[in-house]
């Protein structure tokens, strides 16, 4: 049998890496396609290096564009690849445009699709990712899920139980695998900061960064928290452009020379440096899906700058709190979490044990043999 998998954007790389390793271990022919949705060195190639991912066999180089254009370019690029490679199965991960575009193209060519991280729902259709998740799940043949809520969502949407496989979380496989190498990162020394004496922020959702009001509220709230605890902010290129175009640069600083306070913008970090930065922080502010899950495993206080989450297990496990883009809510909840400290003793979500990729590849091999 032959498997083709598709990645495109930063969070895809951590999710495919353990699957790629496991396919190699089992001797399954695997073609890895990169759509080029993310293309900056720090958003893409650096992750391949950190994660030991093989160089993609094929790069479609689609780059950035409007949703329709980017989706169309991925579909047009991947169609001839699927036709010439003729895989038995396409694996897609997560919820980015590359995930949905590849899945639609494959299904129309009669190639079955396995969706890893299926069934998550924020029930917020203004999020592009929610549309990507719904469409991918509606046409996938195998749904590999990370948490019980996803099984339930797929059941309610009428997906046959026989197509849903509760496998665990491949992003967490990656975290466990690389925790020791990340511990050796010298990023704290480079930045001149000490463990537990800073917070970390990441921000890139259109609902936060494309809105002047939300972006300003969030940066003002973080500034308030950062009077006592400096906040390190590895910045997504999209967010960097919007802070500049909204003239909000006065709310952030581009150096870490004053390490005692303020929001400090730094370049996007690779996987290992970011994992170290996050692991040694006191609190995390984010609108990322993956970071909500990683802080759950690291048992770090996390404030999610959104009104909803498609990953409710991160809340029931005790580390994550939704605070939206509301300035007072962010400040109050940050104070409460900083006073409370670590969330000790919570059991990890079921099957977040570092073996999800083994279960996924095992299930696929069973089906095709
Ligand atoms: C995408 C995903 C989002 C995911 C995020 C992780 C979709 C709809 N969104 O959002 O789910 O959480 O990736 O980062 O698929 N840019 C660069 N260099 C790059 C990539 C992007 O400068 O390497 C800039 C471009 O200005 C681009 C903008 O960032 O227009 C947005 O990139 P895009 O891939 O459209 O979406 P993300 O916001 O990165």
Can you put this structure into words, describing what you see?
The longest helix is centred in the N-terminal third of the chain and has 19 residues. The chain is built from 16 helices and 13 strands. Strand 6, helix 6 and strand 7 form a beta-alpha-beta unit. The chain has 2 domains: 184 residues, 3-Layer(aba) Sandwich (Rossmann fold); 161 residues, Glycogen Phosphorylase B (Rossmann fold). With 369 residues, the chain is of the alpha/beta class. A 7-stranded parallel sheet has the order 3-2-1-4-5-6-7, sandwiched between helices. It has a 6-stranded parallel sheet with strand order 10-9-8-11-12-13, sandwiched between helices. Bound molecules: uridine-diphosphate-N-acetylglucosamine. The site of uridine-diphosphate-N-acetylglucosamine has 18 residues, from helix 1, helix 5 and helix 11.
Helical residue percent band: 40-55%
- What are the distinct ligands in this entry? uridine-diphosphate-N-acetylglucosamine
What is the distance, rounded to the nearest whole angstrom, between the alpha carbons of the first and last residues?
A: 9 Å
Query: What general outline do the C-alpha atoms trace?
Result: globular
The CATH class name of the largest domain reads Alpha Beta
The CATH architecture classification of the largest domain is 3-Layer(aba) Sandwich
What is the third-level CATH name, the topology of the largest domain? Rossmann fold
Strand runs, count: 13
How many domains in all? 2
CATH superfamily of the largest domain: Glycogen Phosphorylase B
DSSP helical segment count: 16
Give a short account of the largest sheet.
7 strands, parallel
Integer average pLDDT: 96
SSE series: EHEHEHEHEHEHEHHEHHEHEHEHEHEHH
Strand order of the largest sheet: 3-2-1-4-5-6-7
Strand content: 5-15%
Find the structural class using helix and strand composition.
Answer: alpha/beta
Radius of gyration: 20 Å
- Poorly predicted runs are none
């Amino acid at each position: 049998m032959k498997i083709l998998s598709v990645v495109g954007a930063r969070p895809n790389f951590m999710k495919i890496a353990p699957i790629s390793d496991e396919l190699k271990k089992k001797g399954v022919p695997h073609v890895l396609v990169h759509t080029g949705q993310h293309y900056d060195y720090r958003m893409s190639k650096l992750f391949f290096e950190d994660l030991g991912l093989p160089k993609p066999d094929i790069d479609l180089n689609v780059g950035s564009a409007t949703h329709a254009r980017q989706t169309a370019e991925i579909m047009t690029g991947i169609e001839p690849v699927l036709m010439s490679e003729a895989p038995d199965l396409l694996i897609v991960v997560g919820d980015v445009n590359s995930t949905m575009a590849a899945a639609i193209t494959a299904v129309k060519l009669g190639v079955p699709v396995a969706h890893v991280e299926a069934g998550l729902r924020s029930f917020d259709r203004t999020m592009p990712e929610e549309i990507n998740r719904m469409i991918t799940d509606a046409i996938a043949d195998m749904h590999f899920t990370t948490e019980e809520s996803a099984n339930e969502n797929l059941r309610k949407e009428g997906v046959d139980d026989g197509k849903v496989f509760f496998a665990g979380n491949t992003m967490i496989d990656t975290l466990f695998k690389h925790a020791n190498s990340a511990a050796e990162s010298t990023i704290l020394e480079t930045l001149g900061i000490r463990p537990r004496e800073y917070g970390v922020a990441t921000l890139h959702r259109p609902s936060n960064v494309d809105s002047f009001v939300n972006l300003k509220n969030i940066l003002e709230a973080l500034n308030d928290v950062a009077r006592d605890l400096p906040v390190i902010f590895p910045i997504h290129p999209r967010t960097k452009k919007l802070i500049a175009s909204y003239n909000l640069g006065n709310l952030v600083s581009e150096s870490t020379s004053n390490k005692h306070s303020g929001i400090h913008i730094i370049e996007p970090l690779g996987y290992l440096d970011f994992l170290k930065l996050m692991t040694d922080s006191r609190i995390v502010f984010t609108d990322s899906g993956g970071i909500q899950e990683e802080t759950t495993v690291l048992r770090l206080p996390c404030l999610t700058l959104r009104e909803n989450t498609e990953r409710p297990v991160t809340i029931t496990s005790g580390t994550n709190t939704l605070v939206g883009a509301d300035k007072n809510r962010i400040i109050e909840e940050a104070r409460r979490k900083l006073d409370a400290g670590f969330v000790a003793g919570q059991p990890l979500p079921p099957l977040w044990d570092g073996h999800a990729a083994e279960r996924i590849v095992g299930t696929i091999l069973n089906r095709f043999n």
